[in-house]
Design a protein that fits this description.
One of its GO terms (cellular component) is dynein complex. About 40% of the residues lie in helices and about 15% in strands. It contains 13 helices and twelve strands. A four-stranded antiparallel β-sheet has the order 4-5-6-7, covered by helices on one side. Helix 8 (about 245-260) runs antiparallel to helix 11.
């Protein structure tokens, strides 16, 4: 704010921020021309999303006049302005396949937390039918919760056509400002704060094109590639790293070079998901060894999160990349003597051969289990 010479409350940079005001014993959240009621939903002490210029742009509001009311886009939701009240209607958005799918859901969940709204993320598949979607919409309309349908275009085209009618039914009920409405022959209470959001990765196999009647209900928002270096820098600072700026550049550069120089494998991932895994591991190492050299901790985190998934031909290439970026860093060899002895003994009992490759893979699984929640080796 100071760097941009913001001096008045009418300045755009100030009005574009999420601001909280208590008005007539009601807590309202303002952003530009939109105003939404705070939900008071307790969501626990969950971690915060790193705020970057990209997330700021996603949170901002666009205004569009429509007949006798205005439609406001509040990040990924529409706010219907009628008379003096703001009502939440369904806001659905498409996202390009440039951005990480997981990051899109995190953005929505972070906004829901800022507004104290319950947000449920649902992973879509081609096995979903109209009955399942109808039950989901009934619950959302009755509870006022938000829902993000991840990879929405995986649903079959026949189901999507019916879903469009289901969504339109709830939209019309909210616009009419009714307390109850009929949904598929059942009378339901309506909480107007309910909202539905979708994410899409077009161009992948098994994805459907949205029908026109469903597309007409949506407001698209395209997400560009996130700033990995800025996100890594902020997260490293939050974990206690003093040289976060230089380390974040090394991390991003190492993964970028790996994506360019290593072989193409279906299980290789050098995007935001990998960056987040490395940062989580680096934070755990910093808390465990607070006085250790920070380059050593980051390099160990990079190796722990990546080496086990590389093919034998790609391991030397990746090690040469990290050696160029961390020239003065030498990682100490971790001893797994007791674990190795136990594995050799188990192999003999099962009449298996404890080869070096097999033992190495077992140790990698053990190390990965300390970092990741789920581990899968092929």
């Amino acid at each position: 704010m100071i760097d941009q010479n913001v001096s008045t409350i009418d300045d755009f940079e100030w009005s574009a921020q999420l601001r909280y005001y208590m008005e007539d014993d009601q807590l309202l959240v303002h952003m530009i021309n939109a105003s939404l009621v705070y939900g008071y939903e307790y969501l626990g002490n969950s971690p915060r999303l790193v705020i970057t210029p990209l997330t700021d742009r996603c949170y901002r509001v666009k205004k569009k006049k429509k007949k006798n009311y205005c439609v406001y886009v509040f990040f990924r939701a529409h706010a219907l302005h009628g008379a003096c009240t703001y009502l939440f209607i369904f806001g659905l958005f498409f996202f390009s396949n440039d951005a990480n799918q997981r990051a899109k859901c995190f953005l929505l969940k972070d906004l829901a937390k800022a507004l104290a709204r319950q947000c449920i993320v649902f992973n879509c598949s081609d096995s979903l039918d109209c009955l399942a979607m109808g039950k989901f919409f009934k619950g959302l309309a009755s509870s006022g919760a938000w829902s993000c349908f991840d990879e929405f275009n995986r649903i079959n085209l026949e189901v999507l056509s019916v879903v469009a009618q289901q969504i339109l039914t709830i939209q019309l009920a909210i616009r009419q400002n009714v307390e109850t409405f009929f949904f598929e022959g059942v009378q339901l209470p309506l909480v107007s704060s309910c909202a539905v959001f979708i994410t899409m990765n077009p161009g992948y196999a098994g994805r459907s094109e949205l029908p026109d009647n469903l597309r007409a209900l949506f407001r698209p928002v395209a997400m560009m590639v996130p700033d990995y270096a800025l996100i890594a820098e902020i997260m490293l600072y939050s974990c206690g790293y003093l040289e976060a700026r230089s380390l974040s550049k090394k991390l991003v550069f190492s993964l970028r070079l790996a994506s360019e120089q290593l072989s193409s494998q279906c299980h290789y991932d050098f995007g935001m998901r990998n960056v987040k895994s490395v940062l989580t591991a680096a934070g755990n190492l910093k808390r465990q060894f607070p006085n250790e050299n920070e380059d050593v901790l980051l390099l160990k985190a990079i190796n722990d999160c990546n080496l086990s998934k590389f093919t034998s031909e790609d391991v030397p290439l990746f090690e040469s990349i990290t050696k160029d970026l961390f020239p003065q860093v030498h990682l100490a060899t971790v001893s797994h003597e007791h674990l190795t002895e136990a594995m050799v003994q188990c192999c003999r009992q099962l009449n298996l051969q404890p080869t070096d490759t097999f033992l190495k893979r077992c140790i990698q699984i053990y190390e990965n289990m300390k970092i990741f929640r789920y581990v899968s080796h092929h």
